[in-house]
Design brief:
CATH class of the largest domain: Alpha Beta
Shape: elongated
Strand order of the largest sheet: 6-7-8-5-9
Bound molecules: adenosine-5'-diphosphate, magnesium ion
CATH superfamily of the largest domain: P-loop containing nucleotide triphosphate hydrolases
Structural class: alpha/beta
Distance between the termini: 71 Å
CATH topology of the largest domain: Rossmann fold
Strand content: 5-15%
Largest sheet: 5 strands, parallel
Radius of gyration: 30 Å
Number of helices: 21
Length: 452
């Protein structure tokens, strides 16, 4: 086989694997010659050699053989000054794992937090779907949805779930190249590669992972060249059927300044959100964290009511919730007092104040109107029909319960009604709540939605 024949074969390969794969992987190969059934190619890095060997070795061998050359084996050689293992492929050698370069040798994953495992993740209604999807991906079986896109507000467990997936994959499939990093780190590496004129290496490295996980992808919105590169990396991996897992603080379509073609690509797999935590989940998380604190401070007593109080009073952010518990134990241990409600209020005054959410009358009215499917104008208007009057009373009741506004103030917001009307409405609902399961349920639902 001559250089010319190799040239012709290259065209053929280009058609088989597509222009972009060709450009990334085949074009950089320098054909050195064929001797005793061994075809030798010079490659710029051992990584590229390993990659080509692993992914295109059979194809190369097949194409060369069918073009008439008698090739048994392909070898890749790296210029002597770069420390490298030789990579080869061929019939005589059926140990492809020899060519496998673990990701840690080449592209360090961002460190994973030891605490962020599936075992430590408490599952509840708000996160059960996200958890199930994460579990599925962590099995590392056939790629069924690509990418998995996890989104949700701050401190709801996105990073925790991603680390859990990475841990699980590393245990189940130690040979997989699992790369976890934040979108910010992706950008940093990209910029560095540009600066050092190492884009080829950058592309190679990212295209050679088996599982790519990018956390907080909203970070690259508005950063044009990083988005562009991310898009290409993403597509190249999807084309190879490699699993991608992405997180963001909102849904793909809602990330401002994210190119629409990227947003639509991100939506093409499974999109699941982590909902704001509810009381039960928060309580469950507190219970699960309690064990570690108990171990650290075995001498401390904690009143059962304290956890419920915290789960009620602290917003949806789990990070804040954990921080509160940690501080509570440290504080109690320092002052030598048992952990009861009084201590909790002393110690966490600032957190409790910050997470006290002010619910407004307008919000309540909007939610109630929405819930009963009537117009806001009908809710506050003069009509006395039951279909409007009942929701109106429910709204008044919720205003009384969830805001600190006085009856006359509430009345003013309901079409200048008198405070006695409001009082009557509130009483009526209090009665009905005990007799009518539907009303009780409606109120509970609305209250949760408003407090979330
Ligand atoms: P996000 O990435 O969504 O902002 P994190 O994954 O960093 O949030 O979670 C914040 C903290 O809350 C972490 O310490 C995490 O372990 C904890 N956490 C969140 N959700 C859960 C859960 N369901 N069970 C246990 N811990 C949780
Ligand atoms: Mg995070």
């Amino acid at each position: 086989m001559t250089k010319d024949q190799w040239g012709a074969l290259q065209q053929d390969l280009k058609e088989s694997i597509g222009a972009s794969n060709y450009k990334n992987w085949i074009e950089p190969l320098g054909f050195e010659g064929l001797e005793n059934g061994v075809a030798t190619f010079a490659v710029p890095t051992s990584f590229l050699g390993n990659y080509v060997s692993r992914n295109y070795g059979d194809l190369l061998l097949y194409k060369m053989t069918s073009s008439g050359a008698s090739v048994r084996r392909i070898e890749f050689t790296v210029p002597a000054n770069t420390a490298a293992r030789p990579a080869s492929t061929g019939q005589s050698q059926s140990t492809p794992q020899m060519m496998h370069t673990p990701a840690s040798d080449v592209l360090p994953s961002a460190p994973l937090d030891k605490r962020f495992t599936f075992d430590a993740f408490v599952v509840g209604k708000p996160n059960e779907l996200a958890h199930a999807a994460a579990r599925r991906v962590a099995e590392g079986g056939e790629v069924t949805f690509n990418p998995l896109f996890l989104y949700g507000g701050v401190g709801l467990g996105k990073t925790h779930l991603m680390h859990a997936i990475a841990w699980e994959l590393q245990t189940r499939h130690p040979h997989l190249n699992v790369l976890y990093l934040s979108a910010e780190q992706f950008m940093y590496r990209f910029v560095q590669a540009l600066r050092d004129r190492k884009m080829m290496d950058f592309k190679e490295l990212f295209r050679s992972v088996d599982v790519l996980m990018v956390d907080d992808v909203q970070f690259i919105a508005g950063k044009d060249s990083t988005q562009e590169e991310f898009f290409h990396t993403f597509n190249a991996l999807v084309d190879q059927n490699k699993q991608i897992i992405i997180s963001a603080d909102r849904a793909p379509g809602e990330i401002k300044d994210l190119e629409s073609r990227i947003a639509s690509r991100l939506q093409s797999g499974l999109v699941v959100d982590l909902h704001p935590t509810d009381f039960e989940l928060r309580l469950g998380i507190l219970h699960s964290k309690l064990a570690t604190h108990r171990a650290t401070y075995p001498e401390l007593e904690i009143e059962g009511k304290v956890l419920e109080f915290l789960a009620h009073r602290i917003s949806t952010n789990v990070r804040v919730l954990e921080g509160a518990l940690t501080r509570l134990f440290a504080f109690a241990s320092l002052v030598g007092r048992p952990i009861n409600l009084e201590l909790t209020q002393d110690c966490l005054a600032d957190i409790l104040r910050a997470s006290e959410r002010k619910i407004t009358i307008e919000e309540i009215q909007r939610k109630v109107a929405e819930h009963y499917n009537i117009r806001l104008s009908e809710l506050v208007g003069p009509k006395r029909l039951r279909v409007f009057a009942r929701p109106r009373q429910v709204a008044m009741y919720l205003c009384k319960q969830l805001t600190s506004r006085s009856l006359p103030e509430i009345g003013r917001h309901f079409g200048k009604r008198d405070h006695t009307t409001v009082m009557h409405g509130v009483r009526r609902i209090e009665e009905l709540k005990t007799q009518d399961g539907q009303i009780a349920e409606d109120i509970e639902m609305l209250r949760r939605a408003l407090e979330a």
